[in-house]
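Entry 0007
Protein: Na+/H+ antiporter subunit D
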Amino acid sequence: MESLICVPVLLPLLAAGVKLAIGGRLRHLQSVISLVTLGLSLAVSVVLLVAAESHGPLVTHLGGWPSPIGICLVADRLSTLVLVVSSAVTFCVMVYSVANAYDQQEHDAPMAIFHPAFLVMVAGVADAFLSGDLFNLFVAFELLLSGSYVLLTFGGTEARIRAGATYTLMALVSSMLFLVALAVTYGATGTLALAQLAERFPQLPEQVKLLVELTLLLAFAIKAAIFPMSAWLPDSYPTAPAPATAVFAGLLTKVGVYSIIRLEALLFPGGPVSTLLMWLALATMLVGVLGAVAQTDLKRMLSFTLVSHIGYMVFGVALSTRAGMAGAIFYVVHHITVQTSLFLVAGMVERRTGTTSVTGLGGLMKATPLIAVLFFVPAMNLSGIPPMSGFLGKLLLVQAGLAAGGWLPVTLVAAGLVTSLLTLYSVAKAWSRAFWSGVRAERVGTVVESEEDTGEDPTVTTTALPAALAVSVTALVVLGLSFTVLAGPLSALAERAASELMAREPYITAVLGRQR
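Output (structure tokens):
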């Protein structure tokens, strides 16, 4: 069973190499290879989740070198849970990509590189979730970022190159900080294995521990788009192709959040930085959602809501309690699917109408009722309308905050409720203007008849969409709704994952074994 842990990392890399060898030829074969690879990775991830739930953390030592000498991959409840959800999301996004036919839509884009870059990014995400070593976590970040650079600038338009430059600059700063933290950590402890660090960090002087924790937190906060390190995200994500934007929003920021969850629980439990994290969570929620309220473009509005809802996850981590950590894990799983779904729907709107500006849209409920429903359902889920999973995730965090007590956790609870209401206002305003109300302005590439001119309902001449596009998004929306139906088992699994994570001993023993 331990040998399967490498599959979600190695299989996409192998497939990416094969697809690079194929080049621009046999494009249908490229699509088949991608879908088969991601489907197998999903199946293996489910098997690993079941095994980790039954037998505890699973460990594989790369190259046969035991930890801490070598690098290991660890599959515990937390890593396998997020791996399953991310694998399901990337499979649906790949179906969307194939159906969207970028080889026909973007004639000047280097199609031979799109699928390999996507698979390299997927391999990096899986490696980050499974990594049991800080240096390997750094390698995983660089791997997923190398693929994301290509996807963000795909097609080479001016807007994408400009956004890619901003994204690259922030990623380089984050990577530099990460390297500094690695150097300090290795110099102070003589190891980068997470399990061994968990044993050696308590023996370090408080100043050294605080320096390492703050440096790592700053590096991961940039990647997770935590305020005030979040300004780059709304200017970068909306310019990328819809599948890339959806994966960036759903997964890449969560890799940063996952790293914070893992390190705060394993290496710095209950440290003095918890108060700082609460303030960051408060600012991230409020600044992000206020930015969303001011937007008139679907993609930019969703980008700001993405930032604001990262604050909920940081809030759960900052509480440093099992209930708070369980709420954060539940919310990560919920948010991956919902945010990805919304960005894919925004991509459908853009392909159908040529714009995502809500001031240039209107009456799409009549012209495209399926797209309207596919946007409405995850939008309400994101807002936390009962009894959807968004509401249940927020409820877990509210209960954890109230149980923790103190004025700052209670203030965060109140801020979370305000953020939820403003999120509802933002998405309801966007849905009303884009889908429900009459057309506000003419759109480039579409034929519009306003209600005032004809005396009839607005009609829109738009581009037809492939059926597989709607199927892939519908599957993601249904997956998000399934978390509501399965909220009991999922929340119980999140609690067990949080308990295992905060106990620390199962992880350390699984990795080091008798060597301790």
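Curator remark: Residues 2-443+464-512 form one domain. DSSP finds 22 helices and four strands in the chain.
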